[in-house]
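Z., the sequence and structure:
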Amino acid sequence: MKNLRIVFMGTPDFAVATLKTLVENNYNIVGVITAPDKPAGRGRKLNESAVKAYAKSQNLTILQPTNLKNEGFIDELKALKANLQIVVAFRMLPKVVWQMPEFGTFNLHASLLPNYRGAAPINWAIINGETKTGVSTFFIDEKIDTGDMIFQEEIDIETHENAGSLHDKLMALGSELVLKTVDSIKNETVKTMVQKDSKDIKTAYKLNKDNCKINWNHSMDAIYNHIRGLSPYPAAWCTLINNDEALDVKLYKVEKELIKHYLENGTIVSTKKELKVAVSKGYIIIKEIKLPGKRTMDVKSLLNGYTFDENAKML
């Protein structure tokens, strides 16, 4: 049985669940590496990462390098004498870092690898209409999310699931999978499997303004999946043309209505209680929306004080 000295690397809430699970199972965390504090809000007050806040509460040693190749950081990392490194929602590591510990560096990824390698696996699984996803642990190598796989756990994606609810499910599932992985390394029972590449592998591209924009000419299902796959963050958006205004709006919650109509895609139909957009074979019914400079609101609240012109459109 191996005596493990673990360095944990991560930044957002998704990583906190795993670090907490390791601490609560009495694993020896000799150091935590997380992102530097960032100025946020109007006062530009420095904001700590979720991982740093938790690590501080547990009196763990914290390093916040701006450059992972910096000699000073490398020396500090070596001084921790870790023999295993665990990465959850962090950045790409240089070889000098991931090669350092005796028992390797493994990563938790929120997809069923080799599918959805990349920055936004939770979002793209929903956007692409998948009915299953999961979490994978693998040893890090030179490329992104390609190393030898250790364990995988599968989960269903519900029909009305959005990225937020799936994130929370995978966060919990992932923390248990990391614990299982660490146990197998400690007990010297760990086995790995090479990831099999094929031309059909789907990628989890980094989200940007272009791929978050709604295309109202896509199928009803594709639009529906696109919106829930980006909700609540970073949110799908489009341009609302109303009278002489062109407003970039974000949509958070929608429903589908399958019905025949003869309206052009993107045409807005509004009543005092309902707002919907014409698409191929039906309508997308908007339930939650955000106008520029306003808070997110349900459509009934919006329709109380906002009027749509009869020629209003979503582009």
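The longest helix spans residues 163-186. The first strand starts at residue 6 and ends at 10.

Let me know what you think.
H.
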